[in-house]
């Protein structure tokens, strides 16, 4: 009998299967047609939900409290939805130190304050020791769409340029390094709220769509776009910003940085004429100084992502099937 | 150093402390002033969030999937908010049977269909075996308030009648019985959506406020009202509907039915002139045939709940401090 495996939590192919299993039992009229990470209800209100099970709960560059607000708020931001409200549910293991919980809540509150987000509803559950490992937080973010368009992948067009808003894979590399007791000094998660950096882009006529590259990384987002729209995407390896520390962790642990989670990096598609302007706007944010054009949408190899490698070859970027690292977010 | 205990998950006094610990780190402008279970944002939109960790996941009268939709939808219903949308996040343990997950999702889908609720956003996480016991589901329900008033406890007035919409404690008793392998044939959880039964009440001018009696039971809701408004509430023991099977489980396991969780029972306060009309409307629903007036709001014993016992005495109903039964919902 089929069982849920860690691979089903990877964000890749098996996660799609798991989601399909869940959705298949809902009658069609009980589903919104567009199941992007952020749903739009009543036309202009964005809603998203995410559970955070990250381990360790404290990681270089952030903690589970900060991640729980950034993660949900970023799902709204990439749809042009101003994050306004958060509902938060905490499931804690008996024996968790209250001071530790308090610390995560302070991190969460700090991000809420930075973004002017109100905490409006909450729930707390405590389960017996051993029934949950430490602390899981679920957040539902609600906000108002301030763009005319909903910035879904349906807007992608051949010729569009793909931009990475910053260097990729830092969250996954930081978690992976912590997990294996490798702690390079200059490696931190990129966990951060995207709204301030992305907001100026919303005024660009040529802005097509955006997605935050979380679990599954940039590679998975590219595959979802290519498959979802049956278009081709060509990425240029040497243009993809990857910090040396991230590449080193990948070399040591055998990870592919394309699939490593980010928590403060968006993939952005823009009309070619607006690519330079978009880069300029992004780089005004201290979080996006590494922003770069990394590829192009194409009519070739429909449904597939191709990577032009540094040595001049081409390889297929497929959606990951298994799980490199569980409990990344 | 203070640790989170099971008592913090009871829904009673310690849960209030835990919530206070969390809220105390948020600056005031980042909190809604009214932290009832269901928040009202932009004036007329209701939002609530709840995590469900119930064990066993299948219980007499329902399962975790059904509970996850009813629980959140009921938090809206008691505020006069029509449940319209659900965001759902699933955290599954590696090794969970896919067929079991599918079954719970079918239960969830059935309730969504009954109530015409759309699933709009979701998340799935898989954590390694032993990091979560089975399956936790978090739901965030969103809907539109269809009443003029927001039906909060601020509307309570001395003289108001308190109604229980059905017999109390069935969910807690069913879970408790399962946990101890007592399975009386005629004992089932009351888990059910409240909206259809409560909707007709919304037209009553004398309707003051409503609350679904979940974790902590009727007793805890009464204490929250009395303390929250600094008014007295007198309950009449012999008028409180309790089924024999529930009372038997309480006698065997040493539970007080006043504090046992319900998942399809609302406490309702109405002006005295409207009490009979409210009872009549409730009893039109097959779920509320046992509805009864169980007490009165009074100017006496402000901040306290008194129970007029069957033998003619009076006793204080205090908020529970510890935890009778963890993972009830």
From TrEMBL, chains A, B:
GO terms for biological process: protein maturation. The lineage of its organism: Bacteria, Thermotogati, Synergistota, Synergistia, Synergistales. InterPro entries: HypE, PurM-like_C_dom, PurM-like_C_sf, PurM-like_N, PurM-like_N_sf. Signal peptide: none annotated. SUPFAM superfamilies: PurM C-terminal domain-like (SSF56042), PurM N-terminal domain-like (SSF55326). Residues 36-144 form the PurM-like N-terminal domain. Residues 157-302 form the PurM-like C-terminal domain. It holds the Pfam family AIRS. This is Hydrogenase expression/formation protein HypE. Belongs to the HypE family.
């Amino acid at each position: 009998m089929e069982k849920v495996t860690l691979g089903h939590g990877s964000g890749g192919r098996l996660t799609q299967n798991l989601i399909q299993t869940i959705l298949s039992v809902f009658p069609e009229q009980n589903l919104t047609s567009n199941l992007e990470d952020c749903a739009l209800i009543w036309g202009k209100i964005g809603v998203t939900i995410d559970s955070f099970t990250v381990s360790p709960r404290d990681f270089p560059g952030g903690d589970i409290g900060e991640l729980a607000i950034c993660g949900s708020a970023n799902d709204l931001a990439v749809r042009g939805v101003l994050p306004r409200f958060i509902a938060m549910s905490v499931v804690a293991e008996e024996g968790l130190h209250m001071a530790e919980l308090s610390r995560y809540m302070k991190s969460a509150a700090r991000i809420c304050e930075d973004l002017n987000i109100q905490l409006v509803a909450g729930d707390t559950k405590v389960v017996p020791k051993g029934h949950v490992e430490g602390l899981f937080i679920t957040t539902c973010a609600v906000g108002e769409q301030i763009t005319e368009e909903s910035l879904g992948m349906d807007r992608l067009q051949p010729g569009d340029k793909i931009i990475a808003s910053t260097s990729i894979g830092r969250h996954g590399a930081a978690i992976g390094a912590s997990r294996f007791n490798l702690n390079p000094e200059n490696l931190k998660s990129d966990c951060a709220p995207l709204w301030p950096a992305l907001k100026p882009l919303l005024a660009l006529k040529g802005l097509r769509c955006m997605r935050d590259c979380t679990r599954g990384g940039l590679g998975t987002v590219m595959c979802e776009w290519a498959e979802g729209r049956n278009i081709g995407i060509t990425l240029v390896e040497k243009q993809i910003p990857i910090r040396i520390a991230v590449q080193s962790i990948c070399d040591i642990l055998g990870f592919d940085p394309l699939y490593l989670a980010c928590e403060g990096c968006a993939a952005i598609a823009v009309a070619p004429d607006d690519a330079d302007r978009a880069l300029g706007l992004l780089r005004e944010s201290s979080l996006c100084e590494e922003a770069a054009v990394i590829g192009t949408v194409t009519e070739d190899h429909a449904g597939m992502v191709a990577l032009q490698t540094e040595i001049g070859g081409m390889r297929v970027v497929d959606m990951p099937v298994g799980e490199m690292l569980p409990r990344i977010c």
